[in-house]
Amino acid sequence: MKIKIFSDPKYVPQGVNPVTILQPFWSKYLEKNQSPWSNYINDYINIADSLFELTTLENADLAILPFDWLHVRGNTWKPQINLSRMHLALEFSNIVKKANKPLIIFFTNDSSHEEISIKDAFVFRQSLLASQRKPHDFAMNAVHEDLVKCYLDNKLSIRQKKDKPVIGFTGFANNLSWDIKLKELIYQIAMLPKGGADYLPYRGHRIRTEALNYLSQSSGIETNFLIRDNMAFFNETIDIETKLQLRIEYVNSIVNSDYMLCCRGRGNFSFRLFEVLCCGRIPIFIDTDCVLPFDFAIDWKKYCVWVDSQELPHIAEKVIDFHQNISPQEFIDLQYECRKLWEKMLSNEGYFSNFWQHFHAESKLQILSS
């Protein structure tokens, strides 16, 4: 189902790339990158013309703000509005409004329910709170390379079921020191009156650390944990070769585990969830009032060991119970299904191939009735 889109590169701020959905249509923004994680868009480029058609505003099904709202408000807990970019966004939204066309905005900031100053737009976010979700809010996928293709010679490895589940995690987790707890408390008190308490820099890491501690204490599981003291991969001072080594180490930790712990970070979403599914492994997903992509079409609990954040002390029991009640063949089948879900719905090409479903499901926007 091809969607007719209106956008305009003249509204892209200097030094900013367009949103991913538009990049294949404006070739000057496409670059050849050496790092595998920079080539996340390649497969989508090959099919973009079959999914979307750029057209005039008059003939369009919808309009897309050509740059991420992140570039208007910044990526800190306190909005730092760029007035020139806000002006561009408002100018674009006004011409769309006059044409009576629906407007799409992408917003990859970690804030979970911050209002967009452009009213009535459909906002696609990475981070959402289910309890505060607006009717026109949708969850985005996380953008990353195909880990199987880039690091595993395009061969999906499948694990056989063992008596004990092997649970993996590689990444940053703090040690719940008193100064971290104090910082979080001060931050929460300061931000609560301002409506920003969902953006807690340490909350996700605290929950993650608690989960790792509970899992480590269980004799009924095997752990495959590599705890880092910082978020090294996203450190801009680290060279590409070191980052590649860290990336390979991370992917290997996934494929050498049966299950992987997936919990929110600074924002209320888990990037790791999508990477685990990509590798055909079963996520242990800690639900912190999350909204996941295509929640109206995907039965997410079918693909995860689902743990409500209030059930955290019982996380090991839930994993063991899940593992004991799945047959060896079902365990194998689920690995294939996790990979297939990522390919068909959550990779860039999968997500945008199914982009139309958001509007088919949204009763207030019947732009795609056939």
From TrEMBL:
Residues 243-314 form the Exostosin GT47 domain. GO terms for molecular function: glycosyltransferase activity. This is Exostosin.
